[in-house]
Amino acid sequence: MGVTRWFARLLAVRGYETEFREIVLAAVRRGDCVWDVGANVGLYTVEFAELVGPEGAVLAFEPSPANQSRLKAAVEQLSNVVIVPVALGAEDAMARFQQGGDPLGATSKLLNASSPGAEAALEVRVARGDTLVSAGMAPSPNVIKIDTEGAEVEVLHGLDHVLNAPELHTLCIEVHFGLLNERGMKDGPRQVERILAAVGFGCRWPDSSHIVATRSAR
Hints:
alpha/beta; Rossmann fold; seven-stranded mixed β-sheet; four-stranded mixed β-sheet; 11 strands; 35% helix
């Protein structure tokens, strides 16, 4: 019960995404494989694990060592969760990473090489989702949740094959307009829509910061 109350308090902090959260959770079916991309400290991961049940699986992608320690504590009793300590992106590489200064580390993000302080920042591994699937390191997902602080376009570019897989039926993405703009990607939200529409997903915005994509033929 203590863990449940703790998560309830954390979710209250992010109350602005209440409708999005309800949509994400409603999309998950028992037995699904869910990718929680940008799992942070496990707010969604724990709920996904309950919904997919023992026959399902949740892959929690989180590159931050600080966030990983809290994520591990949150899921240590959940046998259907696997923590993947990498950031998803458009290529297999190493990248600089800035730990968020907020209490949850939720504003942690990848940095461009030209970003202030990038040279002194932590280095983390970045992997294409397609690479992990083709190498047998990750099962193909049915549902993907993405919250990557401005890296959402790169994440999608690394999922060419995954996005075309018929078993993938829903993507739920937090789109960070301000951070995309800072990175010189003012058209990032439109890119997200175009990428998803090109592989047969219909998109809707339940609010001004989140996009939900579902495949027309389920």
